[in-house]
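Renewal narrative, Specific Aim 1. Our central claim is that a sequence can be written position by position from structural information alone. The example that follows is taken directly from our test logs and has not been curated for this report. It begins with the structure tokens describing the chain, in the order in which they were read.
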């Protein structure tokens, strides 16, 4: 993950967007989920919320797509994000 970040800093990668979608209307909406996602992602992972909607959260990562998808997958496995899935 750190290596991919270094590649990005050297211009080898483009930012990648990952979207999480709400699959259960009974769970908290996008605003709460965006905060929880950002909190659960590794601190060294350069990322920010690009768009937050009630049923969708799009995050932009400055690492490779595989590292971004894996980080979001791990965060979404937390019980606080039950009802949300990676698109």
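The sequence written for that structure reads:
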């Amino acid at each position: 993950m750190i290596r991919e970040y270094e590649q990005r800093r050297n211009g080898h990668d483009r930012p990648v967007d990952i979207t999480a979608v709400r699959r259960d209307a009974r769970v908290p909406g996008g605003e709460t989920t965006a905060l929880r996602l950002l909190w659960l992602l590794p601190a060294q992972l350069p990322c920010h919320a690009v768009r937050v909607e009630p049923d969708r959260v799009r995050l932009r990562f400055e690492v490779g797509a595989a590292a971004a998808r894996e980080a979001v997958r791990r965060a979404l496995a937390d019980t606080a994000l039950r009802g949300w899935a990676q698109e």
